[in-house]
Write a structure and sequence with these properties.
The chain is mainly β. The protein is globular. It contains two helices and ten strands; from the N terminus they run αβββββαβββββ.
């Protein structure tokens, strides 16, 4: 009887996943890079695989996976990473897996073909800790984010962020902590759009 129950449960889970919508998005780039005076051909491929669905009760659920490939001067690398599963409703969105830092909110987009690195020191300073559980919710113009780790090795890591948008102006405040190193990073980002 126990074996029959497990098999029927697995069948229900498989049928539910098959009913979910699955999409694949991505992009690619190619170009020339100069490294210490040497010219190198370079290309990158990035695919995001996302599956999502809705329960009878109105909750949204889904999973995602990131597939990356890179060829730099005949050195190829390929990775599958950021496996995440989420559930979302009026309570917000709860995500587990390869999640982002809740304190890494706001910031400046990377520039150039392969990121010119002008903000690397700032990004490293504010992005502390390792996380596997992430929560986010939006209340009007305010977005709240929080991340923690349930792993024993990183159990004291946390990240918290708040962002506020009013028209073309945005303000974001975030902080994160790495318990093993004792490092804490905090930041504030102010942005705006003025005409073009």
């Amino acid at each position: 009887m126990k074996k029959l129950l497990i098999a029927s449960t697995a069948l229900v889970v498989s049928a539910g996943f098959a009913a979910a919508d699955v999409s694949v998005t991505g992009g690619a780039s190619m170009g020339v890079k100069f490294n210490d005076g040497d010219m190198q051909m370079h290309n990158e491929i990035d695919f995001d695989i996302v599956g999502s669905g809705t329960t009878d009760g109105g909750l949204t659920f889904g999973a995602s996976l990131d597939v990356d490939g890179e060829d730099n001067d005949n050195t190829e690398t390929a990775t599958v990473s950021d496996a995440e599963v989420y559930i979302s409703g009026a309570f917000g969105t709860l995500t587990v897996g390869g999640v982002s830092n809740g304190g890494d909110i706001g910031g400046i987009s990377d520039l150039g073909f392969d990121d010119i690195g002008v903000d690397d020191a700032g990004e490293n300073g504010r992005n502390q800790g390792s996380f596997n559980t992430h929560y986010t919710n939006t209340f009007g113009d305010i977005t709240v984010t929080a991340s923690i780790s349930t792993d024993t090795a990183n159990s004291g890591d946390y990240g918290l962020g708040v962002a506020f948008t009013a028209g073309d102006i945005s303000v974001a405040v975030g902080t994160s902590h790495d318990d093993s190193s004792g490092d804490t990073g905090s930041h504030i980002t102010v942005g705006g759009t003025f005409g073009d």
